[in-house]
Amino acid sequence: MNAPAKISPATLSKLAKLGIHHRTDLLLHLPLRYEDETHLAPIATVQPGMNAQVQGVIAHSEVVFRPRRTLVCRLQDNGGELYLRFLNFYPSQQKQLAEGRQIRAVGEVRMGYYGLEMVHPKCRAVDDDTPLQPSLTPIYPTTAGLSQIVLRKLIANALDTLPLGDTLPDALLQRMKLAGFADSVRLLHNPPPDISAASLEQRSHAAWRRIKFDELLAQQLSMRAHHRERGKRTAPGLTPQHRLTVQLIKGLPFALTGAQQKVCGEISRDLAQPHPMQRLLLGDVGSGKTIVAALAALQAIENGYQAAFMAPTEILAEQHYLKLRDWLAPLGISPVWLSGSLKKKEKQAAAERIASGEMLLAIGTHALFQEQVEFHKLGLAIVDEQHKFGVQQRLALRNKGKYGAGRAASTGSGQASARQESVGLKPDLQEPHQLMMSATPIPRTLAMSYYADLDVSVIDELPPGRTPVITKLVSDERRDEVIDRVRAACMEGKQAYWVCPLIDESEALQLQTVLETFQLLTQTFPELRVGLAHGKLDSAEKARVMTAFKAGELQLLVATTVIEVGVDVPNASLMVIDHAERMGLAQLHQLRGRVGRGVAQSLCILLYQQPLSELARARLKIIFENNDGFVIAQQDLQLRGPGELLGARQSGVAMLRFADIGADEDLLNEARQAADELLRDFPEAARGHLQRWMANKHDYLHV
Ligand code: ADP
Ligand code: MG
User: Fold this and answer.
1) pLDDT higher for 603 or 430?
2) 388: pLDDT confidence band, cut at 50, 70 and 90?
3) Which of 3.40.190.10, 3.30.70.120, 2.40.50.140, 2.40.30.10 is the CATH number of 40-131?
4) What is the spatial distance between Cα 97 and Cα 59, in angstroms, rounded to a whole number?
5) Ligand 1 pocket, 598 CB below 6 A?
6) How far is CA 520 from the centre of its chain?
7) 10 Å Cβ neighbour count for 137?
8) Which H or E element spans position 648?
9) Looking at ligand 1, which atom is closest to the CA of residue 287?
10) Which of 262, 287, 326, 590 to mutate to test the pocket of ligand 1 (most atoms within 8 A of CB)?
11) Quick one: which of 116, 33, 35 has its CA closest to 82?
12) Is residue 324 within 8 Å of residue 499, measured between CB atoms?
């Protein structure tokens, strides 16, 4: 056995950039691709686009200045010739590539100015006896200043010196027909020359399957650990009193659907437990999640606890505020409104009433969490449109609820825990229950993996009397017809939305576009009352516009995608989405969900501009053909992969590195089974497996 390699501090910091903190992490730093230096390709057989290793004699070597200083060498073997071209080169290289030298070159073959060429190939001087590589050469993901050679050495050393024992029991390996761990990593780092290149590239080789299985299993185990750990934390047991909740239901102008009753039951049972609920409520747009949230809040309130209800946009939060205010007024409960745009004094007054416990229900935007707001006795936190929030915000909320926490308001979990330590809090403090709601349905595979630590309730039924929205795709050339249609609908007493295009990375441009569209449509429709809503309006103005639209005083609302989430105006039955090709599927589905909320037949017109990219075409086809949010989400997952769906960049959710839950659903199912079995029968193996895969992957464990 070799001794472990000594690693310099400079190299250590570069490895850290690659997420390699432990020597075992080196084992799992797997190649991106391979170069084949196990055999030589006769030059006459190489084609543009191929990666090849060739060998020959330099027939000519010259520095040319077209268009800039370039070293061009002509390499000849028995049957053919190709050019090696270097834009940056050292004198030593020039010497190495002098006429008459025998050279082995590896690189991608292209069609160049002179004929077939390799640009910046890897070259070395050889003689007739220089042996070929015994295995494919791995190319690793790396970072500036860390060469493949150094990485390869470190990894080879780790393979030689670290224990590679299997974490999984033999019986399980055999039954699941899985390759051994040691064989798999060795093979992936040093594949033999006769291996199928396609099976490596597509990651379908048994060795890849084993690695992906292991990764998914680790994810399942850690999510379950998380779930179980929740059972050890304490929350107030909020037993149903059937007082306020029953009163609210009696006063509603509608009866709850079966699906709503079912999820209310699930939530109610969780709230009664002395452990924090972390439940995700999924329901398509318009399925009636708000009333479910209101009932959950009342269960907290009737137990003498406070509830917080948070929404991602001011418009949506305000709408919830107004709706709950009306619903709860007959019960003698008035919510307090809390938003970032309140004046300092108002905010302070609201915060004081929350801190004193006088106000039992707080509704608002992020401000609820980010400002110095402290609850007297928070029993339940509700987060609407959960996918719009990051994990950090969710955690901040959880920390807010801890009772006796002194002045512990803060924005991030890190800060919060630091402060808690500093005031010497005990870990057994109570924390609030959490209800997260989302209209972006999570495909089954995602729910089974990234959300496996949460409990999920689904509203799978729309309230009765809804007619599905008709969707039309209309090319921008027919914009005038669309405008006529809007006029006609509004003249009939209907209301319409005109959603302006999304403009990447430029709020200023987006603002300009919505203002121009507003001006244009106001001029085009002098007979109509047109309103304007966008993110830069101050909140009083925004509220005024939304109230007027809701009351039917405005017939047409020109808006940016601020209306994307949650806005509920049942009389609106026409929606035009301008430049629909720029929007994502979830967004289109959400926007379309703003209509079809009343009894009238609704229409959604997707105006698009040619030419369409492949992706835009695929998206428009999906949204045109499907009304069911779950189906759309599943297809979205296939189009984009999980990262975008999860909003991983903002949420910081650890992503899978090797497995692809779109393509590896079978492995995911097997990993779920195996996780059950390990936890039940082989808890030691489960621990060992987590250690190999999760050492230092704290991001899994703190979601
Ligand atoms: P979402 O799930 O998209 O948040 P909302 O809670 O905004 O949906 O509900 C959409 C509309 O349906 C609201 O106007 C709401 O009052 C109404 N609604 C909710 N539940 C029912 C029901 N059981 N029957 C009829 N209408 C309902
Ligand atoms: Mg909603």
Assistant:
1) 603
2) low
3) 2.40.50.140
4) 10
5) no
6) 37
7) 19
8) helix 648-651
9) 2
10) 287
11) 116
12) no
Cα–Cα distance measured from residue 43 to residue 532, given in angstroms and rounded to the nearest whole number = 67
Nearest CA to ligand 1 atom 16: 288
* Nearest residue to 675 (alpha-carbon basis) of 324, 227, 303, 119: 227
Q: Is 256 in the pocket of ligand 1 (CB under 6 A)?
A: yes
Indicate the helix (H) or strand (E) that contains 436: strand 433-438
Task: Return d(Cα 181, Cα 481) in angstroms, integer.
Answer: 63
Calculate mean pLDDT across residues 270-289.
91
Instruction: Identify the nearest ligand to the CA of 629 by its number.
Output: 1
For residue 701, count other CB atoms closer than 10 A to its CB: 15
Lowest mean pLDDT: which of 6-20, 26-40, 331-345, 492-506?
Answer: 492-506
Q: What distance in angstroms lies between residue 555's CA and the mean position of ligand 1's atoms? A: 22
CA dihedral 325, 327, 332, 338 (to 10 degrees): -20
The residue count for the chain: 703
pLDDT band at 638 (very low <50, low <70, confident <90, very high): confident
471 in contact with ligand 1, CB cutoff 6 A = no
Euclidean distance between CA atoms 692 and 669, whole angstroms: 21
State the distance between the two ends of the chain, measured CA to CA, in whole angstroms: 40
Written in H, E and C, the secondary structure of 611-659 is CCCHHHHHHHHHHHHCCCHHHHHHHHHHHHCHHHHHCHHHHCCCCCCCC
pLDDT in tens, 203-215: 999 999 999 999 9
Cβ atoms of 620 and 473 within 8 Å: the answer is yes
Centre of ligand 2 from the C-alpha of residue 366, in Å: 16
- Contact at 8 Å (CB) between 37 and 26? no
Note the ligand closest to the C-alpha atom of 288. 1
Fold category of 470-626 in CATH: Rossmann fold (3.40.50)
List 533's β-bridge partners, or say none: 559
User: CA 174: distance to chain centroid?
Assistant: 35
> Is 70 exceeded by the pLDDT of residue 514?
yes
Side-chain-side CA neighbours of 84 within 13 Å: the count stands at 34
What token pair was written down for 473?
Answer: 């795709």
Give burial (CB, 10 Å; 0-12/13-18/19+) of 663.
middle
> Which amino acid type is present at position 36?
D
Q: Is the CB of 463 under 6 A from ligand 1?
A: yes
Q: Are 83 and 74 in contact (CB under 8 A)?
A: yes
Antiparallel, parallel or unpaired: β 572-577 and 556-559: unpaired
322 and 290 Cβ atoms separated by less than 8 Å: no
Is the C-beta atom of 460 inside 6 A of ligand 1? no
Count Cβ atoms below 10 Å from residue 676 Cβ, excluding itself.
12
Q: Is 568 in the pocket of ligand 1 (CB under 6 A)?
A: yes
Tell me, using a 6 A CB cutoff, whether residue 285 lines ligand 1: yes
pTM of the model: 0.69
The CA R_g of the chain, rounded to the nearest whole Å, is 31
Tell me if the domain spanning 244-459 has CATH number 3.40.50.300. yes
Q: Tell me whether domains 244-459 and 470-626 share a fold.
A: yes
**Domains of the chain: which residue ranges?**
40-131, 244-459, 470-626
Query: Of 615, 533, 575, 644, whose CA–CA distance to 285 is shortest?
Result: 575
